Amino acid sequence: MKYSSIRLTVYFIIIMIACCAGCAKKPFRAKSQTPPPIIYCFDTIGHIADNKPYILGGKCLCTPNEKNLVLWQADGYFTDMTVEAVRQMYIDKGYKLMDENHRYCNNCCQYGPHAVEGGHCFVPPTPGTTHYEQIASGQFLQIQTDKK
User: Fold this and answer.
1) What is the pLDDT of residues 24-72, one digit of tens each?
2) Residue 29: helix, strand or coil by DSSP?
3) Beta-bridge partners for 102
């Protein structure tokens, strides 16, 4: 009986040390007041003139719709195509476009991650999230490099 209470006390101390060791505070790093430049455009940012559509190897992640088709055609892309034909190009490549049943997922859905990160989801990231900033600025490329 005497040894079991000592053993219990030793176990408790070991557990407390292990828990406290994992709770070390990380130093505070203030976020820069200067936002990174926007490299990729998508619906919630708006089209950046001369950004080539993603399906053609560019940095425009805007959803293919009537409004964006007009902008792309002004930049010289898809000049003789309908919006349905452009949408079909994305679908044929395996991308899941935003529609009434697929939106607001922040690319955390079954089709994710975002297409630009190697997934199949083509829904714009949720504004105000870290993910939104990473996609717009291209910082996800640095994160992927750091993980390797």
Assistant:
1) 677 877 777 888 899 999 999 999 998 999 999 999 999 999 999 999 9
2) coil
3) 99
